[in-house]
Amino acid sequence: MTEDLIVGEDGLARPRWAASNGMLRAYYDAEWGMPITTEAGLFERLSLECFQSGLSWAIILSKREAFRQAFEYFDPEKVALFTEDDFNRLMEDAGIVRNRLKIRATIANAEATLMLREEGGLSDFIWSFKPEQTPAPRTFTEIPTQSPESKELAKALKKRGFKFVGPTTMYALMEAIGMVDTHLIGSHRRGTSGIWA
Question: Is position 10 within any domain?
Answer without folding.
Answer: no
